[in-house]
## 1
Amino acid sequence: MGTHLSATVTEGRAFMQVIDGRQADALSGKRIDVFCPSDGKAFASIPAAGRSDVDLAVTAARRAFDEGPWSRMSAIERGRCLTRLFQLVEKHGDELAALESRDTGKPIRQGKADVLGAMRYYEFYGGACDKVHGDTIPFLDGYTALTLREPHGVVAGIIPWNYPLQILGRVAGAALAMGNTLVVKPSEDASLTSIRIAELALEAGFPEGVFNVVTGYGSDAGAALSAHPLVDYVTFTGSPLTGTAIQQAAALNNRGVTMELGGKSPQIVFADADIDAALPVLVNAIIQNGGQTCSAGSRVLIERPIYEEVASKLAERFSKLVAGPHEADLDLGALINPKQRERVRSMVAAAREAGVAVLAEGAIHPDALREGYYHRPVLFGSVDPSAEIAREEVFGPVLALFPFESEEEAVRLANGTEFGLVAGVWTRDGARQHRVAKRVRAGQVFVNSYGAGGGIELPFGGFKKSGHGREKGFEALYDMSATKTIVFNHG
Ligand code: NAD
């Protein structure tokens, strides 16, 4: 790469896209200011890519796939590229964590955890590259039939602002491991670490055009990318509405998609549960990243005999939670942007007006600037399952509690939203653990634990409105490739 960027986040820095192995501004020269959610101040800018910029990136990825050394590289060599990227992410870990925290407002502790997550993706998929293989199939006499797993070609990854480092790792790790080339469009609200990772990928030895990042608005760059006829497969994480638009765009080219569209994930706490073990996990599952987590545990269903006890213990913990600037490393940071804060505010106000009981509220640190996008944590009790906060993703630090009378009712409530991403089951009864885990319709079920976002090895994805396709683990390698069947007639 011609001009290599310094590792520090200098004030007012004009970040560049990475297209075909080079830094690239938007062809129009237009830029988007990057605001820090902690203080609402602009500290950098990114290119506002349009259709022509996307075309350049996709054409580069197409060429790199069709002609470049990448498509002829052995799985072992691809794995080594990913492993070198893992090592570079580790080496630049502090810089990446600081950049991610400033760009998204998340506490620095969470920024560091996200770096570890990103590292694990490149490490895991670096090691997995040469371990994916096809089958030989018993067929007719005189024939041998076998299958190969082949890359789709050019993969477009459209990713959100909540965990850019980790979600990029999940998309890029699996897509590149299978030999695809990649064009990523991060969120206009959080693009900086994606740019840095694409720069590091060049340093790691990925050939030009294999790992491209275009930045810009969803309605321009995102829409152009998802509709581009030279893209072979689209993977998206974000809101259901945008997911529908992207699927419609990809459908015009009859391309495959993976959709990760959020959730309204329940944790079910039975009366025999180890409450002390559950409490910190229940709180963390909604407070981590300010509740801006697709797999946030945003509903807690509590068996009636322990409802009051668990509700009051959760209230005690909620009332001690404090939101503040990312550098202060408090329980949670600011929300990503004013629009998101407004969404959370209006959903909380609607619930209050409808008479839903507020059991506790956390605080905003007195030193937090008024210009930051903070929202205090809110705990709602005895929520009506038909209420908006019981059904819709808030994507903020808002937890809803529901009492239940029986296992039957718990399962009905757990399955009673349009989503089905993750669930938690808290009970000491082994038979019940198995029964409930099977009956809850969610892509992941945790028993006596909860993994909001973690577990690179664990297949992840939704049922119902939470989306389709699977990411993480080996499953993602199947999503990021297609089976080719070859039949030999040898008589
Ligand atoms: P979004 O779904 O609109 O944005 C996600 C990504 O899609 C971004 O990169 C964006 O630029 C891009 N995009 C937007 N419109 C597009 C289009 N027409 N074509 C192609 N790409 C497009 O999410 P948002 O507006 O930032 O947030 C809205 C809500 O989405 C949140 O309140 C939250 O409920 C949900 N959300 C969920 C997740 C998740 O991980 N599941 C992540 C972020 C947001």
Note: Residues 1-8 have pLDDT under 50 and may be disordered.
## 2
Amino acid sequence: MEFDSQWFRKFPPDFRWGTATAAYQIEGAVHEDGRGPSIWDTFSHTPDKTWHGDTGDMACDHYHRYQEDVELMRQLGFDHYRFSVAWPRIFPTGSGALNMDGVAFYDRLLDTLIDAGIRPVLTLYHWDLPQALEDHGGWRNRDTAYYFRDYAALMFDQFGDRVDTWITHNEPWCTAVLGHLLGQHAPGIQDSTQAGMVAHHLLLSHGLAVAAYRSHAAQGQIGITLNLSAVYPASNRPEDLAARDRMDTMLNRSFLDPLFLGQYPSGLNELLGSGDDAIQGDDLAEIAAPLDFLGINYYTYQVIADDPEHAELLGTRDVTPRDEVTDMGWPVGPHGLTDLLRRIHQQYTRIPLMVTENGAAYPDRVVDGQVRDLARISYLERHIRALADALNSGVDVRGYYLWSLLDNFEWGFGYSKRFGLVYVDYEANRRRLPKDSALWYSDFIRAFRQAWA
Ligand code: FCB
């Protein structure tokens, strides 16, 4: 281990080192105990939407093995955990009839986590919209925002005694753009105007849930998680700078500006499609309600050049160096994490930040009972150093949740991409095997504790 105790003290003693997962990616048991179908059940069962037709039907079977998974976390010393609740387990048709068996599963999970000394962070929406709501227009329908608020309020009631950190949405950009503009995610729509409306309704639903949380006189904290990127221009030519700005507006400002500045960035309409018709009354004030923290998911960075030939890519070309990429083909750029965190701090907000996802997929293999994922360890180590650089320059970061605890269903890529610290053997009864990176992270967290002891 190359971190010394002085280095560890760049982080506050209560800094949260944890791992993250999401319901549809790990739970399986899609027909059990009254769960209703979600848009990801429908999408993954539609031919040619996911790699090899993979679905989350069984996933990591976490629904049945949650005790084993919590025990693994406890043994490894991973004492902070971000997970999501499947809305269709709670309200099988999205609203109306409540399914107490679904509530009971998360009751058991939370009790098990707390008994093991693991502090939970609960994400309310990690992409698995009840299919019944999709049948009524999904996030294109403003009503869905109000149903989300009602679901959120019920969760605050049920779990507020054990959960003190809440995330409304995970990566709403992906729901709007991948789900409704590019059609790569559920529900698989390709329509820029609808994508713009969806972005607005997602943000509105977030604001409504925050308001509901405040009126609960809750003691904890609530925030949202955005996927953000560090975007650099290929050169100082005005054309490249403008191309960078277009990409930055599309990737980052589309959600940061409404949340923290109370307005959509100018020029977004041409990029994402107009959500203007969806905006009503005080929506923007509701969306910009003060938060307790901002969650940031960071994986990669971009270098952008002007290229008028590529209208579909906003007239830009991605010229990011590709000498080091992960199994997703994403360039590795830890410096982007430092720059991104500094930028949020300088331009947007002084509320605490949390890295709610960071990690990498590699084509891991078990050899002699061991997964020697040295590339992942190197990725993690460099990103954690980049995080320390941000803290050093005064950015208030409170936690780091590594994606992911387990190998899991990576959306359109199915089970072909492995992000886990723990290997899941899909051929052998989904047996769990901690990779070398899990042992590394475990040692890292232990050494951190000792440095502060
Ligand atoms: C993020 C998602 C998460 C996982 C990682 C690799 O966009 O939030 O569910 O798929 O990427």
Note: The pocket of beta-D-fucopyranose is lined by residues 22, 25, 170-171, 174, 227, 297, 357, 403, 410-411, 419 (CB under 6 Å).
